[in-house]
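job 3f2a | input accepted
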Amino acid sequence: MSSNPIKAHDIKRFDTLRPLSPEGRDVLAGHLTRERFEQGEKVATAGEVEPRMHFILEGEAAVKTDGVTLRPLAAGEHFGELGLVSDVARTASVVARGPLEVATLTKASLDALTEHSPRVALSIERMLLRGLSDKLGLLTEDIRDLLSERSVPRHLTVSVEVGGTAYEVPTGTVVRELLPTRIEDRLVVAALLDRRAKSLTHRLTASACLEPLTTAHWEGQRVYQRSLGLLLVEAARGVDPELSIQLGHSVGLGQRVHSEGGAPWRPKKLAKELSREMHRLAEEDAQLREEWWMVTEAQDHLRANGWNAAAMYLDGHYDPAVRLVSYGKVYALRPAPFLAAASMMKHFDVIADDRGLLLVFGSEAAKVGTFSMWPGKKEALTEVRLAAKHTGKMTAHHARWLSTLGVDSVGAFNDACVSGDVSQLIRVAEGFQEKQLSSIADSIGGLNGGVKVICIAGPSSSGKTTFIRRLTVQLQVNGVTPVGVGLDDYYIDRDDTPRDESGEFNFEAFEALQTDLLADHVNRLLKGETVKTARYDFHEGKSHPEGGEEMTLGRGQVLILEGIHGLNPRLLEAVADDRQYRIFICPLAQLPIDRVSRVHASDLRLLRRIVRDRHGRGHNAAATIARWPSVRRGERKNIFPYQDLADAVFDTSLIYELSVLRVFAERYLREVPRGDPSYPTAHRLLTMLSRFIAIYPDHVPPTSILREFIGGSGFEF
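job 3f2a | predicted structure (717 res):
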């Protein structure tokens, strides 16, 4: 507040009040108050009812909402006039951009002016109304221009089919109004509109078939997990505005969380505060906002808030507009649907470990089909910590290497492809893997010949076959000759194979193997005996215990056992641990899109399998996608629980491979019919691949793990 009174000549600065007579200006000046604000101070606050308006005398201000600057204000302009005639809360804040001086007219002052000088008050009100009319006219023109460039609904109603019944609903109906909140205890997280996943906030603008997407489907789980990530970054802003949070690699039932900046938090304290703030936002039911932004506008906002990876990602976005999402004030990219409200997320947690923070998804995100993978909270926390420890071993070196290359996000990778030498990027990526392979071979050789059995396991499409061929070469360089024994040849007869919950043969069950026979053969080989190995006839479904090759383990030779149960300690209980060397392989290190979303390693494996199955086995993409949930269940049960027993881990991912897989996978994914149950996944994968610059496979070496899937390998399979 200033003691310096407003003069009549001050009022002449304002175009809106210029028609006021000299006497009127003198009268008005006596009812105005001079106020001063420093840079960053709020003159008006969004959400508050403030019965006053302001005329800017000196300086500049900015109209802001949710941290976004809508427009600047300069000397001679005014704002807040609606506060004089209504009790509606302000929709935006006004913040000083530097030293700011304003003349303030309160409702009480206007009432006093009306009582003592009604003619002057009436003139002022007419002038302000004329100014409002001009603003509305400009707004109408903007809306008209916007609608002329965008598609608008052509009908007042649309026809939508839900559960086999057709309904006629008003255009603009929100899809969640037509769907249940749960189906058989599974949360409805999104809508499938003509088999394409949409957020529940989506409005209908055309006739379509509408279906619910629940957490029983793995696409629904992704929606739930992705939404937890967005809620976490929003919570971080509430805990410490200077704190930077980024979601890292998946760790089973949770996800790694990286934090930097802000106050010097202790990890356990920070985890507790973040979890508390997330639950507060959920209890207050923070609503999802999906907004269309012009790309350049979005990039400016993202860079201003330190989201450089997201801004760089949009460099390859050719549409003029992009959708951003938020549960409050933090905006992220929208690569796929998010939950409509924070209250839909429950039973999650944020915990600390020796590497930082972990987001635990909770029981809702662990429901797969009719099964639940949730082992209980205590067991889940232990499982997440173990998975995080193992994942950290696999990704730390890879992450440092990518950081050195300056390729730490999808946007940075695309930029490197455009501005750099793609063939050199491929050579460096392949060289990095070869160095890791050599290190594992040296480790085995450094055990002075004590290792006699190398057990290798990894999830589907990890590249195990090529890995074994390349490891064999490195071992032979060190004077060690591997001899392979396939676990698949030790299946029991098909009729004796255990069945799963669906009544189907469960060939992935540990009990489907003749472990006694395998142990006998391995022990005899280690004693130097000649053994007639087993053979399994897949056509007949019969085991031939001595129908395989005759084998003797000579000097300088080691056995290699590869299969889904390769890390299970029950497989070779009779063989001493110091004579075994266990290796876990999996493609894991994938690039982030922004601080919330990243490429999933399981998506990479699925794309590898789609391309390989189409090339070599004649299976179409729809069939491969349909089998994927069953494959993943088997991995969670039989492989991942034992990964921490591995003596060595090998990340088979290649930074460039999605760009190469795109060349093949785009066509195969487009072959999936719109009505097929696999279509939602196919559509999401197509959308993801479209954001990668395509690289043709000419420079991919014949020894690359990628060749196992795209063809042209230098190894015989």
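job 3f2a | The first strand starts at residue 33 and ends at 37.
job 3f2a | closed
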